[in-house]
Amino acid sequence: MTHRPGGAGRSGRVARVVTLAVLVGGSVAALLGGWVGLVAGAIAGPVLAVGATRWLGRQPSRRAVAENRRVTADLPFAADLLAAALRAGAAPERAAGYVAAAVRGPTGERLGRVARALRLGASVDEAWSYLGGADGTDRIVRAAVRSQHSGAAFAGALARVADDARADRLIAADAAARRAGVLIVLPLGLCFLPAFVLAGLVPVVVAVLGDVLSP
Hints:
Elements: H1 5-32, H2 34-58, H3 62-87, H4 92-103, H5 105-119, H6 124-128, H7 137-146, H8 151-213
């Protein structure tokens, strides 16, 4: 008998959907009670379970998120290298291959796929789309499409992409630092607020009430 590798995965997904449907349906039935709860649970459980499973299935995996972050971090350096290779006279597919060997990691792997696609005759937008969905890669794709007949124009566009990516990283780092400052101050404020109320406001309120209520 032939073993299907996807069978176990499908069985696991079905089991998760059934379990989630039972949990959601049981919660709705217990919340509403009676026949209304049973009917509502029987309808809402499967619907919400299937919808939640499909939504979760569309979310990127942890590995994909980590790879996109790495590509985003490497983007300014990779774009600068691509621009330098193009200015030196290399064709886009050779430039992508050179930079893939220099950068390595997820960025190098994706640039290697770009280089292979260009060598095999894929269209410019299709080939450069192998960079994936990391922040900033769409700018490289648009620059490649706009300047596909001019290596010099592509090199200039890549240099601008690198500058923009570095500026975005600085802005993101500044915003993160500001958020960290707020998160650090907030617990201190929550600690000092009760002391301020007890030491500052309560005596004033007691004194005022004492004056008002005194005969």
